Amino acid sequence: MTEELTIVYISLSGNTQSFVKRLSQHLLTKHQIKVNQINIKDLKHETFPVEEDYVAILPTYLEGGNGLDSGDVEILTTPLGEFIASHGNVDHCFGIIGSGNRNFNNQYCLTAKQYSKRFGFPMLGDFELRGTSADIERLADIILKAKEDFQTK
């Protein structure tokens, strides 16, 4: 029997979607885990209950501020936060992974850090832009360990 993993994500420019597709292929090939991908962008602001445990992945799109003291406003990715907050979905999220561009310094992966704090689940890791093969391998291992730890609580 093949194990399954659910990834809830939002992709706007295609970078996060590319990462999720490559991560899914890696998990299937190396770990025999079938990934159920839920791209929030495709839902057009609809929400529904997620019954299985999942990991969330999102890019950072902010307006204004410097990520430290002058404020910032999350833009474009808010539907993922709404999805997590609805129907008790937060109870099934065992962690979040952020993506971004390191050129933005303190704002790099800031949305994932904010979601971690807001919802009380751990930030499991990060990757830049589309992520590298090393990121895929590293984060696959982290996700599998976090899922196992979450389910044995």
From TrEMBL:
PANTHER family xrefs: PROTEIN NRDI
Example GO molecular function: FMN binding
Name of the molecule in the record: Putative NrdI-like protein
A Pfam match: Flavodoxin_NdrI
UniProt-listed InterPro entries: Flavoprotein-like_sf, RNR_NrdI
Organism: Streptococcus urinalis 2285-97
Gene3D superfamilies: 3.40.50.360
Gene name as annotated: nrdI
Domain of life: Bacteria
